[in-house]
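Practice problem: predict the structure.
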Amino acid sequence: MQEFDIQGLLHDLSILALPVLIAITTHEAAHGFVAWRCGDDTAYQQGRVTFNPLKHIDPFGTVVLPLMLYFAHVGLFGWAKPVPISPRRFRNYRRDLVLVAAAGPGSNLLLAIVSALLLHVARLAPEWAAGWAMSALYYSVIINVVLALFNMLPLLPLDGGRVLSAILPPHLAIAYQRTERYGMLILIGLIFLLPMIGNQLGVDINILGWLLGPASSYVRSLILHVTGAGDILTSL
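Answer:
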């Protein structure tokens, strides 16, 4: 019987959990901050415009479910507590709705760039710390790029759905907003159900993989190239 590798598990969790926590905290704080600047202080009054991860963690969606999926080896999925937004307080409803929705994915792309730049610093650390730091930063690039692109899918309740809802003509926006009640079911189907069915049939019907795989690979490679971090990784 194979022994449970607790050290390996802790190592994997350490280089994954920290980038994930920073990514979702930055994402939610960015939503709240931009909403505050646009005239809606709901999130600010509730203490959500902060980089304290405890304010954004959903016990089940951020901790329990991802761990269950990790041990079950069926992929990763989760969520943070949504930042409360009151769009009626916006100074310019349509413009500000787009800005607030785009702030989350935009912050993740910025964080991916910062993580890539920090790889230049991490390689100068003592040998015992450099490997861990560079792994965590590289995963930070991957996680933030995937999180940004995933959230920009034009599906409610994702940020891309919010942007689309804001730019559609009013009568179409109202009809589109009614689809939000089915959004989570659609996401679960795309993430888990269709790939499982495809595996049983021997057919690749991982639609999200088709969409996000090439796009995230391209954006990640572009960030690593522009920041010069790609040369560091290839030299290891």
